[in-house]
Design a protein that fits this description.
Strand order of the largest sheet: 1-2
Helix content: 55-70%
Number of helices: 6
Length: about 170
Amino acid sequence: MTQPPLAPDELVSAGTEREVLAAFLDLHRAVLRRKVGGLSDADTRRGIVPTGTTLAGLVKHLAAVEREWFQRVLGRRSPEEIGADSDAGDGSFQVDPDETVDELVADYDEACAQSRRIAAGLPLDHAVPHARLGRVSLRWIYTHMIEETARHVGHADILRELTDGATGVDG
């Protein structure tokens, strides 16, 4: 039996700590994008679970989470400097009627690109003040973002399965 090509996270199986953390975060970021791929705006907005969580709302929320942790906390930027939603509270799941899934994914991609740029210039031990935690390191932010993104990708997997039956990391 022929083995499939190695996935990006598998390619760093003997990589540095930073390579492994970045690869796993990027893996979950990519899966989220695939979860909304090929669906209509209506399908991504459909609230099919009791909480009302939607695929579009998950994308919007995770864009805010990226901005909150990498731009606001790590990059020490103010919400005014960021110019987009960087509050990852409950309101960040709310999709405006005029927002399309393509726009939400593009915004998410831009937030992720900004995250990568900010993190690239810093060592994993780089720590910044945090109101609740005292200080947080880039290492901690990477780990938290892997957990946060993977948890919501799990939600997206269930929503996608309930929408059209697609499951797994590819659909």
